Write the structure tokens for this entry.
Amino acid sequence: MKTKTTPKTPEIKRNQSSKQGSLLKTKDSLLKKIIAYLRLHHHLNAAFLISKQTVSTERQLHFPPMKKAPVRQFTYTLFIITEKRTPLNPAELMDALYNHTQKQAKVYLISFTEKAVRDKMTFGSNFLKSIFNSVRCIFSVNLWWERYKSYKVNHHPMVIDRINVHWETRFQRANYLHNLTVYNESDQDPAAYFEILQKVIQQTCLGLIYVFWEYKPSYTALPYLLHLCSHFADFPSQIFNTHTYENHHILQQLCHADHLMKFRIHTYLSLKQTDKAWQKCNEFLKMSESLAEQRLQFLDMESLEHVRRVKTKRQSLPVQ
């Protein structure tokens, strides 16, 4: 006896697909490994790939056993949404992912809970709007966030004014701290000097990130901030390059300056190194100011265009 089956409606299909679970949209084996770890341990709801960088090198051994070994290092920047706040701090979680990938991949995370996303989108978040409209989703338990794709980035003059105020405040703080380091060399404590310079770079990075992304990082470790800035500027990696031992050493001391102040009495930092670190920070400040000015000019133009469109739309409405 034949039984007649009714066709499934789109609503039924949608419900069934959400019950069946996740959508994984990547063929990258390392990314799959990272996603699986976050799902298992941190209640991952959705993940978006902001950037991926691959560096390939070849290691040649000329002492027995002689061999050539290709080495590939990956760097991922992910925006993730979790169902609840992760118990690990960002540094611990990123270290866990680095070890989970057998040290093949560095993973920089921007993490929000689902509730935080919904709350921020209720009041409007240009950063989240840009994520949902521009960044590729590589994993999602369901597609609840797709409703936000229709939300457009807001360039109202009040928003641009807020960005200007944020940048000016951060840059003024950075300049004030930078000016504190102009002392007689004989009075310098290298550890204190490096911590002040660390704060100079942090304040500048926080300002730049808000100018370009309208995002306020809750995690402010220097390597993390410099990495985020590398998405819209090349000069951070050029100024704080690690091509020589001395440059690498200076960057490491800047990154861990707060630790040195807390736990070290002898730091073995020379006045020559403090002077070179000061010059790097000075160059970083100047180039950041120039970049921010260019971006703010662009945003001012976008704001004027926003006002023009609104005015034109109002004029086109029928008079009642």
User: Anything to note?
Assistant: Residues 20-150 form one domain.
